[in-house]
Design brief:
Blueprint lengths: L1 E4 L8 H14 L4 E5 L5 H11 L7 E4 L5 H9 L4 E5 L5 H10 L2 E6 L10 H13 L4 E6 L6 H10 L17 H7 L4 H4 L4 H21 L2
Parallel strand pairs: 1-4, 1-5, 2-3, 2-4, 5-6
Helix pairs in contact: 1-9, 3-4, 4-5
The structure holds adenosine-5'-diphosphate and magnesium ion.
The site of adenosine-5'-diphosphate has 16 residues, from helix 1 and helix 7.
Amino acid sequence: MIVALLNQKGGVGKTTLALNLAGVWARQGKRVTLIDADPQGSALDWSQQRAREGLPRLFGVVGLARDTLHREAPELARTADVIVIDGPPRVAALMRSALLAADLVLIPVQPSPLDGWASAEMLALLAEARIYRPDLAARFVLNRCGARTVLARETAETLADHDPPVLTATIGQRVAFAVAAQSGRLVSELDDDTPAAREIAVLAAAIDAVDTGRTTP
Ligand SMILES: Nc1ncnc2c1ncn2[C@@H]1O[C@H](COP(=O)(O)OP(=O)(O)O)[C@@H](O)[C@H]1O
Ligand SMILES: [Mg+2]
């Protein structure tokens, strides 16, 4: 499975979710490779910080912020169970390449009504990719849901039949994500039994279910 976290908006949680989801799958014993497709290299920075802290390697992080990504990713996928792509901001050529590489696109969004969830350009690029990849699945993921998480979940449920649909597994506004990232850790490594760690585990399971639905006729 190749999962790409994409949204042309910055700061929506692409890197945070990519790292923590990769961590869930790695801890399940899956062979995971994370492709950092962002020229800023935040996932690579995290990996370097992790090494500095002397923490064990959980999954490989490779920098591949090139528009040949769609040619390289299937090659990397041959020796991995899951490839997670941490997507680039704004650069359309990179975005196109990531969309062509992916089996499943996750679009993290903040569930703010003031906020357009994804730019029209992002959705246009997705539609364009589907001409070549009719089986390409896409889902919105509500991230940083505030105190009104219940409301966000209701929103997610009412929007579940939108295109792309919204996953009912949502992620709250949790300071643990920033705390963990600073020391090259995952939220599950701070404590397995925090809301952040539980939400990421539920999200990973929801993604597995989408993938199973995609691959079984
Ligand atoms: N659910 C969350 N709760 C709290 N902070 C979050 C959450 N998701 C992301 N953040 C924080 O928001 C900032 C931007 O997230 P990041 O994953 O780097 O976004 P992107 O990769 O889309 O630019 C980071 O400081 C990160 O720690
Ligand atoms: Mg990022």
